[in-house]
Design a protein that fits this description.
This protein has 5 helices and 9 strands, in the order ββαβαβαβαββββα. With 183 residues, the protein is an alpha/beta fold. It has one domain: Glutaredoxin, CATH 3.40.30.
């Protein structure tokens, strides 16, 4: 996919959503491209979602934020526990997406065991991908603004083959164990 100037490069926060269109996630859909951020060997770097998905079978799960209670004690650990089982079923990569910056995600990955389990943590730093999917929520009382609802997807070469989406405030359908049952 290309950006509005016809280049493959999209600055962080730019996505391939038509203006004003919200998408829902379901099996059979191709995810739009987006520029995300992650911590690389030399520091923060941008990466396109399409480059992470092209020609690969990938698990992508999203959550509200690093170091939040349920994300740190239930959601992320469920994918650390099931990482090898996913790989045994042919999954090439397991990607965690959060509306966070790469600095926070790097430390969170190290403290949760996600880095040791070879999970990739990427940030939708400004939340534009999450908003475009219609998966954002805001809970000002607990300091969460423009965060991602929980979901877990199996994606084959950019096309969603399985989608488990939690109701807001719940973490059950999008856990590693529940998604693994769909394969």
């Amino acid at each position: 996919m290309v950006n509005s100037e016809g280049s493959d490069y999209m600055p962080p926060g730019q996505t391939q959503f038509p203006k004003g269109v919200l998408m829902t996630i379901s099996a059979g859909q191709t995810l739009p491209d987006a520029t995300l951020v992650r911590m690389g060997a030399k520091g923060p770097e941008t990466v396109t979602l399409s480059s992470l998905l092209k020609g690969r079978k990938v698990v992508l799960f999203a959550l509200p934020g690093a170091f939040t209670g349920t994300c740190s004690t239930i959601h992320m650990p469920s994918f650390v526990r099931t990482a090898e089982a996913f790989r045994a079923k042919g999954i090439d990569d397991i990607i965690c997406l959060s509306v966070n910056d790469p600095f926070v995600l790097k430390i969170w990955g190290e403290t949760t065991g996600a880095t040791a389990a070879d999970l990739m943590l990427v940030g939708d730093a400004d939340g534009s991908f999450t908003k475009g999917l219609g998966m954002d929520f805001t809970a000002p009382a607990i300091g969460l603004i423009g965060r991602s609802n929980r979901y877990a997807l199996v994606i084959d070469d950019g096309v969603v083959t399985h989608a488990n989406i939690d109701d807001p405030g719940v973490c059950n359908m999008s856990t590693g164990e529940m998604l693994l049952e769909t394969l």
